[in-house]
Here is the input.
Amino acid sequence: MMLLLSVQPFQPQDPIYIMYRGEPIATVNRSEYAIPLLGVPALNSKKYSDFLTYLAEQIYEEPKDARIGKAGEIIKENVGVKLDTDKFTRLFYSKFLGEGEYVEVPVERIYPRVDSELLSSIRTKVIGQYVTYFNSSNKERSTNIALSAAAIDGYVLFQNETFSFNKVVGKRTAERGYQPAPEIIKGELIEGIGGGICQTSSTLFNAVDLAGVEIVKRYSHSKRVGYVPPGRDATVSWYGPDFLFKNTYNQPILIRAKVYHGSIVVTVYSSEDINNSPRKITPKTEKRDQI
Here is the structure.
C-alpha cells in the first residue's frame, strides 16, 4: 500500500497541478497522498494507482480508421492517444519529492488499423462481386439486410487475417435496430430477431469466393433459399454457425456492401499489386455442412 520515496526531509504542502495540452486537468494535494512512515515519507500506492487509472481514462482517445464516405470520398483517419504511465510516474515522483508545481502529462500515440493511404491503394481493383435481390416491401427483413450490410461495408482484411461474420457484424439485437423477421432454423421457418441477415452473409460468400479467397468455414441452410443458387448460401447465427474466410493474398482486401432498392451488392477490392486467383463458379448441388 505504500511506496518509499526518500530519506530526505519532506514537507507535503503545495499541490501538484496535472497539465494536459497546456491546460490543468487535475490537482494532487501532496498531503492527501503522503504517508509518514518512521519519519520517512511514503506515497499511498493504492491512492496513486486509483488516480493513475482515472487519469488514463481522461486522456485516452480511441484511434479511428480512415473510411469511405457516402459520396465515395476517403475520410481521413484519427490517431489516438493514451497515457504513458511509466514516464508519468517518473515525472510525478520527482515533483512529489521536489518543489515543482506542474506535471505535463506524457502520452503515446495509437495509430489506427487503416489509414487513408492504404485505403486509397486497395480500392482500385475489383477482384470479386456478387448481387442478390429481396422484396423491399418487407420492411423488417430489409432493415436487417441493410444493417448487416452496413456493418461489413468498408472492412479491410489484411494478409493472413481471418474474417468472422459474427464478430464483424456483432450480436443482432432489438437495441441495435434489428427487427423480427422469418429465418430458417432446423428446416423450419420461424420468426427471429435479425431474420434476413443470411442473405447478406450468402452474398458476401459468393463475392469473396469469386475473388478466390480461402473459405475457412461455411454452413448451408437445411432448407433451400431463393436468393442464391443451390449450394451457394452461407447461414449464420449468433449462437450457432459462423461464416469465416481468410485472406491468403499478398495484399489487403476491401469489402464494400451496398443496398439498393431491393438488392444487395457486395464487391471485393484490392490494389493493382495483388496476386489473386479468381474462381469461376458453376452452381451445383454439393454435399456440405447443413444447419
